[in-house]
Structures are given as structure tokens and as C-alpha cells.
Design brief:
Layout: H1 3-145
Length: 146
């Protein structure tokens, strides 16, 4: 190889090395930017993790509250069942009282009929007494006149 060719090859190699250094510099800048972005994403991710931890804590609190409400609801269900049983007993007793009142109503209807008959008889007696009263008055007038 001639010295000119060698020099040209050396310049070519020097240019290639220079291009490689420029590419490496560009790659290094890109890596730095990616590193910065990754750091930003890591910080955001840390914030998300903190938020998720708080939400997990709150969810645990909500679950505890729901468990307490479920227990209270079960207790209310038991109390409701007891009240329903008592209500059924009262309904049965009221049915019995209703039957008793119906019997009393029937008996009072019979008494009302009998009182109506007595009222009629008393009206007849009153008419009889009025008639007797008139006769007694007539007798008294006759006796006074003598």
C-alpha cells in the first residue's frame, strides 16, 4: 500500500472514529434523558405506591366498618324475626278477641231484641196504667161528688 493510500485510510479511520464518538455522545445524551425520565417515572410511581397504601388502609377501615354493619344488620334481622313471632302471637290473640267480640255482639243483639220486647210490654203496661189512672180519677170524682 502506498503512503497516500495509507494516509487516506488513516483519515477514513479517523473520520469513522470521530463519527463513532459523535454517535456515542448522542447515545449518551439520549441515555441521560431516558435516565431523567425514568427517575421522574420512579418518583411518580413512589407517589402512586403511597396513594395505594393510603387507599389500602382506607379500604381496610371500610371493610371493618362493613363487617360491623353486617353484624348489626344480622342482629336487627334476629330482632325482626323475634318481633315477627310476637306480632303473629298478637295477631292470633286479636283474632280470638275478635271472635269474642262477635259473640258479645250477638248476645247484645239478643238482649237488644229482648229489651225491645220489654219496652213494648212496658208501653202496654203504661197504657194500662194510664187507663187505670183515668178510671181512678173518675172514681175519685164520683166519690167527691157524693
Amino acid at each position: 500500500m502506498s503512503p497516500i493510500e495509507t494516509e487516506r485510510k488513516l483519515r477514513q479511520l479517523d473520520n469513522d472514529v470521530q463519527s463513532i464518538y459523535e454517535l456515542l455522545s448522542a447515545i449518551s445524551g439520549t441515555q441521560a434523558r431516558h435516565g431523567n425520565r425514568l427517575q421522574e417515572h420512579a418518583e411518580k410511581l413512589d407517589g402512586v405506591v403511597v396513594t395505594l397504601d393510603r387507599l389500602d388502609t382506607r379500604l381496610g377501615s371500610v371493610e371493618t366498618t362493613i363487617d360491623g354493619l353486617e353484624s348489626r344488620f344480622d342482629g336487627l334481622g334476629t330482632r325482626f324475626d323475634g318481633l315477627e313471632t310476637r306480632f303473629d302471637g298478637l295477631d292470633t290473640r286479636l283474632g280470638g278477641l275478635e271472635d269474642s267480640f262477635d259473640g258479645l255482639d250477638t248476645r247484645l243483639g239478643g238482649l237488644d231484641t229482648r229489651l225491645g220486647g220489654l219496652d213494648t210490654r212496658l208501653g202496654g203496661l203504661e197504657d194500662s196504667f194510664d187507663g187505670l189512672d183515668a178510671k181512678v180519677d173518675t172514681v175519685l170524682e164520683i166519690l167527691r161528688a157524693r
